[in-house]
Amino acid sequence: MPFMDYLLLYREKLQSISNQDLDGVIADHHWTIAAFDISFEVLERQHPASANSLEICAFLRNENISFELISRGSGKLLHETNFRYVIPIIV
Amino acid sequence: MRSYSLVRLHSTKGSFSIPPAIHAWLSLRLSIERREEKLWDAIQLIGQFVSSNDNDLGDANIWTSEMQALVHIETCWLHIQAHTEFFSSLGAKNNFDSRMEALGRMAGMFQRQGKWRHAEELYMKVIDTVKAVHGLEHPRALTNMNNLAKTYWSQGQYQEAERLQVLVMETRKRVLGTEHAHTLTSMNNLASTYWSQGRWAEAEKLEIYVMKTRKDVLGEDDPCTLTTMHNLASTHWSQGKLSEAEDLEANVMIKRKIILGEEHPHTLTSIHTLAGIYADLGRWKKAEELGVHVVKGFEKVLGKDHHSTLTSIQNLVSVYTHLSQWEKAEVLGVQLIEKFGRILGQQHPDTLTSGIAVAWIYHQQGRLKEAEDLAMHVIPQMNQVLGPDHPYSVNSIANLAYIYKAQDRLHLAIHTMTKATALFSRKLGEKHPYKLRLVRIKLCWNGRDK
C-alpha cells in the first residue's frame, strides 16, 4: 500500500476509534489500535486462519499463550514459525 | 519493525504474549454475535486440548502443560460469566452437543486442578442447559451430574454428593439396567461417598455387588473389576478387617503387576495401600519398604513434581509418623509444603494439609510452639478455602486441640475439641467413627480435668 494511502487510512481509523467510548487499558492507546486494526484487516484477507487464531486468543489470558495449547486445541500442528510469519504482517 | 512487534514470542518457553491494549481490542472490535462465536471457538479449543490430555494424564509433561493452561481457561471462564445470555440462548444453536462436551471437559479440568468452585458452577450450568434441551435422563446430563458429585465430594460436601449420586444411580438402573457399566460406575462412586462418611457397611454392600457383577460380566482380570476390588480392600481396611483387606489388596497388586506392569500407577497405588495395611498390622518395616518403593516408582515413571508422586510421599510421611521416625517424616513433610506450595499454590488443599501434617510431627517431637504456630497459620486458610466444616479443617482443629493438651492448656484443649466434634457432627453426622473417637478423647480429658 502506498504510504500516503496508508496515512489516509490511518487517520480515518484513528478518528473512528477516538469517537468510540473506550476505557480501561485501551483508552490511552488509540494510535496503536488504529495501526493494529489496519494490519489486522490485511491479515484477515491474506491469512484468515492466523487472524482467527489471534481472535480466539482474545478470550484467553494475554500472556504466555503456549503453542501447545493452540496446536493441540485446534487439532492442527502450529509451530512458532507460523507466528513468525504472521508477525511482520501484524506489525 | 520487529522491536515494535505486536505479538511477543518467547522462544525458550514455546509461547507468545499479546500486549494488553491489543488483546483487549481484539474482542472489542467484534460485533456481539461474532464475539460469542469466537468465545465458542475458544471453548472448543480448550475442550479439544483437555480431551487430548485425557489418555496421558499419567505423563508428567501433560500434567505440567495442563497446569500452565489453567490461567487461560480461567480467563475464558470469566468471559463466559460476563456473557449473561450465554447459556439461555444455547438451545437454538448448532453444535449443541459438542459445545456441551467442551464445557464439561473444561469443568473436568477445573476439578482435576483443584479449582472446585469453578468446576461446581460450570457443571451446574451444563446440567441445567442439557436438562432443558434433552431432559434429565440424557446420558450427558447424568455424566455431568456424576462429575458434579465428584466435585462436591472433593469439597467434603458428602450429603450433596450422595443426593446426586443416588439420583444418577437410580436413573441409570431404570434406563440402562443394573448390570450396565455406567450403572456400576455410579454405584462405585456412591460407595466412595458412603466410605468418606464412615458408612462402611453400606459402602461394602455396594462394592461387593459391583465386584461380583464385574467379575461375571467383565471377568476377574478386567481393570474395572480390579478397581472395585481395590476399593473394597480399602473399605475392609477402614473397618479394621485387616487380614481380609491384605488378602484382597495383595491379590489386586499381583494381577495389576501382570496385566498393567510393575510400574503402572495403578500397581503402585495398590502397593501403597498394602503399605498402609501393613503399618496397621504392625509390620512397620515392610510398610516402610513398600512406601519407599512406591515413591521411587512414581518418581521414575511420572517425575519428581507429579501430583501422584507427591501424594505417595504424603503417604510415606504417614508411614514414618506411624513408625515414630520423626526426623525422616519432618524432612519429607517440609519438602512437600515447599513443592505443593510452588506447584499448586500456597492455599491449595494439598499444601495446607501438608502444613497440618508437619505441625503434627512438631507436636510429636515436643516442639509445641512451632506446632501451634504452624497450625494457627494453616487453619484460617483452610477455613477460608475449604470451609470450617470440611473434614480436613475439622481434623486440623482436632490436631490443634491435641497441641493445646500437650501444652497443659487443658481448658483450651477441651474447648477446641468440642468445637471440632460439633463441626464433625454437622458435616458427617453423629455416628461417624472418627467423630466418636474424638468425643471419647474429649471425655477422657474432661475426666482428668475434674
Task: Produce a short descriptive summary.
Chain A is an all-alpha fold. Chain A has five helices and one strand.
What does this structure look like?
The complex is a heterodimer of chains A (91) and B (450). Chain A folds into two domains: 1-46, no CATH class; 49-91. Helices cover 69% and strands 2% of the residues of chain A. Chain A has five helices and one strand, in the order αααβαα. The two termini of chain A are 14 Å apart. Chain B is mainly α and 450 residues long. Chain B has a domain at 343-450: Tetratricopeptide repeat domain (Serine Threonine Protein Phosphatase 5, Tetratricopeptide repeat, Alpha Horseshoe). In chain B, α7 packs antiparallel against α8 (181-196) and α8 (181-196) runs antiparallel to α9. The chains are: A mainly alpha (91), B mainly alpha (450). At the A-B interface, α2, α3, β1, α4 and α5 of A face β2, α1, α2 and α3 of B. β1 of chain A pairs antiparallel with β2 of chain B.
